[in-house]
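Re: your question about GDP-fucose pyrophosphorylase domain-containing protein

S., sorry for the slow reply, the queue was backed up all week. Below is exactly what I fed in.
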Amino acid sequence: MERRSRRSSARSKADLSTTLRRAWYHLRLSVRDPTRVRTWDAIVLTAASPEQAELYNWQLSRAKRVGRIAPSTITLAVPDPNGQRIGSGAATLNAIFALAKHFHHLAPIDSTVADASNLNSISSFYESSNNGYPLPFFVELLRKKHILLLHAGGDSKRVPWANPMGKVFLPLPFMAADDPDGPVPLLFDHILAIASCARQAFQNEGGIFIMTGDVLPCFDAFSMVLPEDTSSIVTVPITLDIASNHGVIVASKSGSSNDKCSVFLVENLLQKPSIEDLVDQKAVLDDGRTLLDTGIIAVKGKAWVDLVTLACSSQPMISELLQCKKEMSLYEDLVAAWVPAKHEWLRSRSLGGELVATLGKQNMFSYCAYDLLFLHFGTSNEVLDHLNGTGSGLVGRRHLCSIPATTESDIAASAIIISSTIAPGVSIGEESLVYDSSISTSVQIGSQSIVVGLHVPKTQNEVFGNSFRLMLPDRHCLWEVPLLGSSERVIVYCGLHDNPKNPLSNNGTFCGKPWKKVLGDLGIRDDDLWGSRERKDKCLWNAKLFPVTSYSNMLQLATWLMGLSNLENANLLLLWKMSDRVSLEELHRLIDFSKMWLRSTNHQADLAVGVVAACLKFGLLGRNISQLCQEILQKEVTGIEICTEFLSLCPNLQAQNSQILPKSRAHQVNLDLLRACDDELMAAEMEHKVWAAVADETASAVRYGFKGNGTMTCLVELS
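Result:
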């Protein structure tokens, strides 16, 4: 046993590029051949509502389609019951039980297989599951499975523009240039890559690896070692000032360690401790730092069986939480059951006795990864910081987009344009992010701003004439959301640094300005936003601020509310008051997720159509036509028709570039399009032509070479 090292302060953080590239390489191998490179048996996401869960299931299907998840892996999104918040701990139990039922539905097993004699470690606290089956029946389904669970539910109040899509699926174009014709990398994709490396730590023991959907933890998960039959929490040393806003782990003074990591028994858990608390609880390391709870939890072996046992008997507990409108936290309540020092405190909490009785026999260990780089996407500002700071060298700033010539627009080189169409006459400032949008002429986007899902019709310019320009100031966010039961969309906006949770009376802001100034400048009263009833929680989150009216009116009112037009315009004030309005809080329940998904899918398919068309008509066929066609085929009605039209251009490809286009490349494009059109018979014939052309070109390359001046010389005479 070794004492905790004083050298930890000298250890450097993981190199983001090296860590991610290695993780992605491993992810691709595990997807390609999961029998050789072990992958997860199931990937589960928690969701805030059934509607959000449906959106997440579409995203999971997309991840399988584009090669992020192995075909053999079960995927499932599990909503909180009745769309009511139950806390991350209860959501964990609910998700595990839902997965057990899902496995049973896919491959029912005979209850005699689940012999209780094989489950000696199972707690006897509960005698049966909530579905009427003996408890060992469900436990046996999961005890040897390897599960990745991502907590992705809840409201993204500090990143409100990511609320519709789910924060875990926000765009993160790290290494996008490595695959220029591939789908836009999402935060979810990078989390999958890191998590794929952690699978080896479970070996053949069943278990679960729990992560949060708003953090990308970059560390060497290949070297992770987890003690058997226990739970473990991943930690990283941090300074004491940062610790005061987070959870802290108090670990024992002895354990095992090396230059990369250490494993120590967890002795206590602290939540947002003061420096005095850290000192009193002996949480300060020898180097003056303390251990941050990263929210990454691994449970394996007997501890996993105990957790499954609890989960499969948890429905009465969850029903009690729903009735009492209480929540059970994973990071405070559930984890405390594995830490004896917290048992007395936990028993005083709602349902704490059940947690201790079922889980309390096993311990928790701290796996401290000294090199862990903790990328948190908790606020809009943090998102831009990671794109333009920490990971700026990895960011693909133009990906699957259509942008005009530099003489027809003013787009900063540092701006990130992803899955978007930009018309001439548009201005986009430094370090801004534009995603999944169509920006028409006469739109100005400031610096360090975020635009998501905005589709400004070209006809709007005709409605307003040349006098109106949609302007988004520096450090602002603007996004567009389709509404349930309505053909209308709502345009939403706020300042980059606005905290929607900050009360009106405590530094609350809208578009970067204090509420008092906003209301005074616009002539809006408190009761216009929050009603006449007295309430103490007045804030941006629950302000009925955003009008639902015609698109042209919403654009005008947006510029007015952001303070960019005549603030004393009585007509705009009256129009705003007469309009139906929604708050950010209400908006989450009103989103038409299916319409949003369909619009985004079709938009990306249209971009792929444009890329392929340009490649076939003007280029040398250097794009990945097969991959682009997969996006085009997401247009269910017209996808194959479009690919068929492209196929008709193939006979002319070789003729129009006969001097410089290799015949094998022309044949390969033809093959890709035949497969996209589902013509396997012709594709098989074309594949022979591809290989024949490759053989001819290879032989020619061996026979001939080029001098420095470009003249051909015979190197080898094979005849």
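Confidence is low (pLDDT under 50) at residues 1-10, 109-128, 707-719. Residues 376 and 715 are 57 Å apart (CA to CA).

Happy to talk it through on Thursday.
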